[in-house]
């Protein structure tokens, strides 16, 4: 049996524990729901305080809904746009290389544009499913993705800018264009454009990383100077040049009203490039507006990266990324539907492949009829 003194001592201990638990429950109510150390109360001694499961708070529900919407948009992109961009850009390269003897200067520029688009389309499958932005917490992956995105953006806009200038030279300076618009000069221009695109991404990257060596959670894409450079050099200045070129081209076409056949032919040549430029502007405008709002927003420096503008608006950041990736998927459609030269090459390419396939089947049938099958047993 237990002695009365010991029994009384147990009762006092139990009452003391209950009083302490009630005191903790009354004074740490907010910590149970929002404190980071609230689960410490839910141990074996005070388990009756945590019998009810916590309901999902409104911010958690909102984040869950945004995650579902982002996942749905990523699936739509992967099912509909990614195959078009991946197969279409490869087809542009294969068809034009197969008919390299018929390659024109605009075809050469579109081939290089297809290479840039193919790189981004292949890289986009990693980015479009980065819904919780966990990849941005790894410095190497974040930097790798940012570099690929920037090189593709710079190369695309630089090629489109140069193509607009090339169209202006071809239309406005008909006599002098034959001197400057040669295939050798076009190849040299493509090499310089790629060099400029890679330099525009790598030079700031090197300078910034030398200043942030050793930082664990540093990401190249979060530097404001890099983002300002991306907006000005990769969007504002090129489109100012493109707008000037096409305004001058319109003036030339208006003055060419006496030569109707010449005007129609020039208009057909310009139509595809104009559509490509417009699609690029529409797809990349949300990304640049999103970055501009982030840069212009007055925020106090905080130690946590989770307080950045992109982390505060993950769904919007995901949507503008998908819009930017969509540009590389839509260019093959524009090229195939509006490019008359490419349609002719594609038709010849399909006909040649069909003839080769038919010839291959005919040769196999002939060989089978002449040479007996080795599996058949000869009669003696």
TrEMBL record:
The gene is GPER1. GO terms for cellular component: axon; cytoplasmic vesicle membrane; cytoskeleton; dendritic spine membrane; early endosome; endoplasmic reticulum membrane; Golgi membrane; mitochondrial membrane. Pfam families: 7tm_1. The keyword Manganese does not apply. Residues 88-335 form the G-protein coupled receptors family 1 profile domain. The lineage of its organism: Eukaryota, Metazoa, Chordata, Craniata, Vertebrata. GO terms for molecular function: G protein-coupled receptor activity; nuclear estrogen receptor activity. GO terms for biological process: apoptotic process; cell differentiation; cellular response to estradiol stimulus; nervous system development. Belongs to the G-protein coupled receptor 1 family. The chain crosses the membrane at residues 67-96, 108-126, 138-165, 186-208, 228-249, 270-295, 315-338. It is found in: Cell projection, Axon; Cell projection, Dendrite; Cell projection, Dendritic spine membrane; Cytoplasm, Cytoskeleton. Keywords: Apoptosis, Cell cycle, Cell membrane, Cell projection, Cytoplasm, Cytoplasmic vesicle, Cytoskeleton, Differentiation, Disulfide bond, Endoplasmic reticulum, Endosome, G-protein coupled receptor, Golgi apparatus, Membrane, Mitochondrion, Neurogenesis, Nucleus, Postsynaptic cell membrane, Receptor, Synapse, Transducer, Transmembrane, Transmembrane helix. The keyword Transferase does not apply. InterPro entries: GPCR_Rhodpsn, GPCR_Rhodpsn_7TM, GPER1-like. This is G-protein coupled estrogen receptor 1. It is a multi-pass membrane protein.
